[in-house]
Amino acid sequence: MKLKNIFPASICIVVSAGILVFGLWPFNFRPENKVEWLRDQNGVRFYGRGIIYSEKEVPILPSLHSSNIPTKLFTVEICIQPDKETFPYLPHIISFCDIQKNENFFIGQWKSHLILGKGIHGRNTYREIGIKDVLKKGEMRFVTITIGGDTTRIYVDGILLKSSPTFRFFSMNEKPSGNIILANSPTGESYWTGNLFGLALYNSELSEEKVFQHFQRWIDQKGFILSSGEGLVALYLFDEHSGEHIHDTVNHHHLLIPPQFQSLQKRILIPPWEDFQINRSYLIDILTNILGFIPFGFFLSVSLWARNKTAIYGLLLISILFGGCISLAIELIQVYLPTRSSQLMDVITNILGTAIGVTLFFKTRKSQRVNYLAWSDPRPKY
User: Fold this and answer.
1) Strand ranges (DSSP E) for the chain?
2) Does the pTM of the predicted model rise above 0.90?
3) Which of 221, 256, 291 is the last residue of a domain?
């Protein structure tokens, strides 16, 4: 093989290797689950991409299995302390999902705002309500959400701050289970950071008086107190201080702290219409994917052209096929990398970058050919 053919092929291989390294870095198939026990008090700390989840269903809504009861009653109490307010996404503090790990609704944080959301953020079907400036960095908050009939109420530190008769978590035909995920979403892409001190779930709607009493007991006793006759179905005191399990003091619906981080719902080649966002981070990601494959398309064209003077359309087709295969391989491997996401938009933008690289090669070659003909023309210039 001639040296002039080896050089572009070598560069193309180096560029391809760089793309694979960048696309799969840091090659961590078993990343650390960034959750740790608090040393000086009951609770756990989420200091990065972490997750805690229930190993089996928590029956928080037994009335869902009975068609004779038309309303759904539910209360969740959670004591939290955020450690930051700025996220490039919507972090989930607690998520409730079904057996297939499809999310029913979540309690999250956007900047310093408390958010109750239902559906996939960014879609037309997504709905949310919230309260501004109640989750400030470093401040402990006792949050209570009650659902009774058609009304959702939000309490912070025992005080009712919002009541919505139109926001419904559960429709009449919906049968969500009580699978719980803490500090993340089922996909593992919406992690929250901060301290979590306690969690209680009820299959009843606590009254405003009861909510305030529970908050006062939390302040006085520095923790939840086991209560009877209120429909308490799960209580997590976070008082183990070690180990991989958080025990339910009411039943046996324990929570698991896995040693390695894992996403419970693996998504392959997420369609662009599901993850499209208009923000700086998303636009930078698109631009990076395009620019990263331009050198690949350019040097692959140089290598193929040195072997066979193929027409531009044939060369473009071959280059796009190679670029698409490399991009698709990266996205499929990313399914098994818990800290990465597999997106169809990446494949599309990578193919676009490859096509731009091929076009630049032909533009450069055409320009060089024109300059060469002009320089070698022996006719006098007038």
Assistant:
1) 35-37, 44-46, 52-54, 73-82, 92-97, 103-110, 113-118, 127-131, 141-148, 151-156, 159-164, 179-182, 194-202, 232-236, 245-246, 255-256
2) no
3) 256
